[in-house]
UniProtKB/TrEMBL annotation:
Top-level lineage group: Bacteria
All copies of domain DUF4224, residue ranges: 5-49
Pfam families per the UniProt record, alphabetical: DUF4224 (PF13986)
Protein name per the record: DUF4224 domain-containing protein
Species the sequence originates in: Noviherbaspirillum aridicola
InterPro entries: DUF4224
Length: 77
C-alpha cells in the first residue's frame, strides 16, 4: 500500500521552499490543511492536496461537464 502522505521532497516541490517555517506559510496561503509532528516535520494527506488543487478525482465528475444552467433557470417548472 502506498503511503497517503506527501514526503519531504514532495512538500518542498509543492511549496517551493525548503525551510519548514516557510513551507507552513505557503501551505497556509494555499489553504492546504497540515499538521506539525512533535519533531517539527509536516504531515499532509495526498487526498487533501488533490482536493484543494482541483484534481479530477476529487471533483467527483468528468472534466468539462457542467450543469445545464438554462434548464435550471427556466421558469416553466
Amino acid at each position: 500500500m502506498d503511503v497517503p502522505f506527501l514526503d519531504r521532497d514532495e512538500i518542498a516541490a509543492l511549496t517551493g521552499k525548503r525551510r519548514r517555517s516557510s513551507q507552513r506559510e505557503v501551505l497556509n496561503a494555499l489553504g492546504i490543511t497540515h499538521k506539525v509532528r512533535p519533531d517539527g516535520s509536516i504531515l499532509i494527506l495526498w487526498a487533501h492536496v488533490t482536493q484543494v488543487l482541483g484534481g479530477e478525482a476529487a471533483k467527483g465528475r468528468a472534466p468539462g461537464i457542467e450543469p445545464n444552467w438554462d434548464a435550471m433557470n427556466a421558469r416553466d417548472w
